[in-house]
Amino acid sequence: MGFFDDKQDWLREVFAQYPDTPQGRRAALMPMLRRVQQDEGWISPERQEEIASILGTTATEVAGVMSFYSYYQALPTGRYHIQVCATLSCAIGGADELWDELVQELGILRGEVTPDGLFSIQKVECLGSCHTAPVVQINDEPYVECVTKARLHALLQGLREGKRLEEIVLPGKAGHVVHNRGEEVGA
Amino acid sequence: MEAMAKVTINDRTVEVPSGTSVMDAIFHAGYDVPLFCAEKHLSPIGACRMCLVRTGSPRKGPDGQFILENGQPKIFWMPKLSAACITAVSDGMVIDTLSDEVKHAQSGMVELTLFNHPLDCPTCDKGGACELQDRSYEYGLVEKFYQPDPLELPLYTRFEMTRRHVDKHHALSPFIVLDRERCIHCKRCVRYFEEIPGDEVLDFIERGVHTFINSEEAGLPSNFTGNIVDICPVGALLDQTARFRARNWEYDSTETTSMDDACGAAITVDARSGLLERIRAAERREVNEVWISDAARFGHEWVNENRVRSPLVRKEGRLVEASWEEALEAIRKGLQGVARTDIGVYLGGHASLEEGLAAFELAQALSTPHRDFQGRTAYPVTVFSPASFDDLLDAEFVLVLGDPAEEAPTLHLRLSEYSRGLKPAGKLNHGTPFADLNIKERMPRLTDKLALFSVYPANTAKWAGASAVHAPGAEVALLSALLGQGEAPAGLEQPVAWVKGRLAASQRVVLVLGAGVLNQPEAATRARQLADRLGAKVMCMTPAANARGLEALGLFPGKGGAGWTETGPKAVYFAYLPQEAQLRAASFRILHLTHRHPLADRYADVVLPGQTAYEKRGHTLNLEGRVLPLEPAGINNGEADGAVAALGLIAEAAGVKAPFRLVRQATRWLHEKLKLPAVMERWMPKATGWAASESDVTQGPLYLRPTMWRQEQLVGAVARAVEVRLEMSPETARAQGLADGYRVELDTPRGVEKLEVRVVPGLPNGFMYLPALGAWAGRRVEARILVGGEA
Ligand code: SF4
Ligand code: FES
Ligand code: FES
Q1: Interface list for B 186-205 with A (CB within 8 A)
Q2: Would you call A48 an interface residue with chain B, using a CB distance cutoff of 8 Å?
Q3: What's the rounded mean pLDDT across residues B196-215?
Q4: Which of A129, A143, A147 to mutate to test the pocket of ligand 2 (most atoms within 8 A of CB)?
Q5: Which residues of B touch A67 (CB under 8 A)?
Q6: What mean pLDDT is reported for chain B?
Q7: Domains of chain B: which residue ranges?
Q8: Residue B570: predicted pLDDT
């Protein structure tokens, strides 16, 4: 069964937001991708085909748009999809070491899920919070900032215990990084 | 009068139509600017930043007067350099392409582009014809990286840099291989697929430094994939049929006309050491612009192998090699006792005008009515006044009955232009603009200007406001309904009503007729009535490339004459492979062939070595009636010769006077006696004395659907890419006791064939569809399934 078979009303609402032209119809691509990603945690090749046929475009076009955004996953993800910013500021701030720590701790690489189904990991481009580098984002949640190894382990621990992100207490405080002029970053 | 803009490029001032890009103004003035992403007929997008130049304009003050400096309008330079391909000129603009600032930016871009580019030019098929190589020599940091002296090492070398390593041999299809390391992300190939054939089968995946091109559609399903090899500025996309055959400068290149369909696209045939190795598109603005179909490009691997290189005559039951003199003797003997009126002369559909004339004149001299060419349609096409491609772009409405992407591929691409509302590209000093700002990415398709009816789902239908797939034979009722002389066939009421409305509201209409209509005299007659009533011009997608020309010369059966599919004459000359029955029925058979074939081995009394269309000299007419040149490529074909020579031989053997023995004489005759105009002009005489029997238009459940591929092309990569299946609707399959994947043996005009059944929902019931792969396109035939069963 297709993913959208029982979501015709939802589809109609989405299409109603865009002009009734081939171009307008294609604009629905983003909300459709988002819907599948949210509900299933990834967008399988079958789903991509399905979206392409609903929109009257090719699977190549869907893959092109989808792969542009790191939010959309082409492989299954864990319950907590950990995205580590690896762009310049975070790289300088130690993102690579953080990534190695994650790989070590979880025993998985990009594209894999831990056996308990909890975690998957991915490097992403700049999350736009360079001043609190290194930055990590779990799913769609608010950023976890200034992630040291200690904070990372506390984070994983909390998630394993089933806590919600905002309930997890991380050691040290955000903004602990100090500019060379003396004031705290993010202060 | 078009609005013009006066612009000064360095020291030269020129006038160009306003709206011209800065890039084209620079070329128009005779200066150069480097580019990677801009390309003729594609939208300019400013992706590569290679074409940076400095521009400035005069400005008007609050008083409406130009702000002056030293009595001259003051030039306000833009604070940054602009990409010339996406900047439009304005009146009074000043463009600088020579200053140090510009040079510095351009050399910086070259080096940036080269940063991750592999330095494997010695093993790259594009080497020597690579835009990146050329631009690096012309605009890169030459002094820094190049050897000052053959014996000295350069001070710096690009080999020292670490490069990105990715997939180097990614086969996108049996025809095209992609080297992702070489790609410079100009996006030409991606834009091409969306804008030109409209098949969006290639796209950028990922972003930033990770970007690569890929397809999710296995094997790039499009009839026009090869053009991306021509336009890729580097060696990232390469032709697998010509891989590692030669360095670009070793090819012996000949520009000629593709005889793969009736459009007359220009091609460049590359040969090396007497072998045909590669075919590329050549530019013919009025016809194919710079694009060709995959059949025209990749369908050449059959040419070199298994050729007939010298005449063969039958001795003691076997065909043995002979000289042309011995062949003449054999023909003389064979024709003894045969009445001249019992000799049949049959040419191939890609015969040149010269050959057509020779055949017609010989038939006249013999007074035989048995003359024809392979693929002639049952209804004459010369009675229609032909539209040119310019007429097509100018039309208010186009009605297609057929499948342009298969029957006349170039026409599909020109309809793509038409559906985007584009006009023929302007002409500047350097020719076609490289950055035509009228062309945009993802232009809306104007679907209310096009309708398409076909017997098999047609790709072009995606741009049509109304389209439908109907059963073979329904064309008569369809056209009657459009003429207001009857009800629309069931299921077509809506599209027919829409088309009627659009036809009534449109002034300039073009009709496009496929082989399906042209092979049904009744339907074609109605199409003609419709064209007459609307004052419409017509494009006929004939199976024979030179149908219009050969018909105009009178090469169709005279009264009582046998057509190209029929039996009749005792002695026959065929420049193609006829059906076995036709050979069996004759008592003396001369086959003029390029390749050996079992049927020839079995039946031919004399085999003459023939030329492929790539080896002919002469002229042809395309579906516009345009005179196009044929130039022989450097292919070693032994003693092969064209029909002019072969027919001269037959004339001599039959004891009649051949009007000429040389192609050159025939060309002169065409120009002088028949008033054939110069190349690229149009020649539109009507055929007179059409007496072709209509008996060869058969009824039957097997529909031979037009395909751009021809039977002989199905070797090598083409054989891997093209599927020949017997297709039918689920209901038809059930009625025949067949199912998907069953194997059957079928008696077809090509002989008995083993085929796999494919069930295609949506096809009209009661018919079986087989790719025609040549001259039988658009015909229905009786066909019996001999055996069938599960695979
Ligand atoms: S493959 Fe060639 S044409 Fe396509 S984006 Fe890369 S460099 Fe450009
Ligand atoms: S570099 Fe990591 S948030 Fe910007
Ligand atoms: S930016 Fe690529 S040619 Fe102008």
Answers
A1: 199-205
A2: yes
A3: 93
A4: A129
A5: 205-207
A6: 94
A7: 4-146, 170-298, 312-376+547-673, 389-427+441-540, 702-789
A8: 95
Residues in B closer than 8 angstroms to A47, CB to CB, are none
Which ligand is the nearest neighbour of the Cα of B135? 3
Distance between CA B145 and CA B56 in Å, rounded?
Answer: 33
Mean pLDDT computed over every residue of chain A: 90
Confidence of residue A61 (pLDDT cuts 50, 70, 90): very high
Distance from CA of A172 to the nearest CA of B (A): 34
Q: How far apart are CA B717 and CA B298, in angstroms?
A: 8
B389-427+441-540 in CATH: which number? 3.40.228.10
In this structure, which topology does domain B4-146 adopt according to CATH?
Ubiquitin-like (UB roll) (3.10.20)
- Say yes or no for a CB contact (<8 Å) between A22 and B444: yes
Q: Note whether ipTM > 0.90 here.
A: no
Binary contact (B203, A60; C-beta < 8 A) = yes
Torsion angle of C-alpha atoms A43, A47, A49, A52, degrees rounded to 10: -90
Architecture of domain B170-298: 2-Layer Sandwich (3.30)
pLDDT band, very low/low/confident/very high, at B160 (cuts 50, 70, 90)? confident
Contact across the interface for B217 and A48, Cβ inside 8 Å: no
With a cut of 70, say whether residue B789 has pLDDT above it. no
Tens of pLDDT, residues B298-343: 999 999 999 999 999 999 999 999 999 999 999 999 999 999 999 9
Give domain A80-184's CATH superfamily: Glutaredoxin (3.40.30.10)
Neighbours of B675 (CB within 10 A): 9
CB B551 within 8 A of CB B353: no
**Which residues lie below 8 Å from residue A120, measured CB to CB, with a gap of 6+?**
A76, A77, A78, A80, A81, A82, A108, A111, A112, A113, A114
Q: What does the pLDDT read at residue B208?
A: 84
Ligand 1 centroid to residue B429 C-alpha, Å? 28
For chain A, which residues make up each domain, given as ranges?
Answer: 8-66, 80-184
pLDDT at B461 over 80: yes
pLDDT tens-digit map of B375-403: 999 999 999 999 999 999 999 999 999 99
Do the strands B785-789 and B743-748 form a parallel or antiparallel pair, or are they unpaired? Answer: antiparallel
Annotation: CATH topology of B312-376+547-673: Rossmann fold (3.40.50)
pLDDT above 90 as % of chain B: 89
Q: Which three-class secondary structure string do you get for chain A?
A: CCCCCCCHHHHHHHHHCCCCCHHHHHCCHHHHHHHHHHHHCCCCHHHHHHHHHHHCCCHHHHHHHHHHCCCCCCCCCCCEEEEEECCHHHHHCCHHHHHHHHHHHHCCCCCCCCCCCCEEEEEECCCCCHHHCCCEEECCCCCECCCCHHHHHHHHHHHHCCCCHHHCCCCCCCCCCECCCCCECCC
**Range A8-66 classified under CATH 3.40.50.300:** no
CA distance B181 to B209: 12
> Residue B644: left (phi > 0), alpha (psi -120 to 50), or beta?
alpha
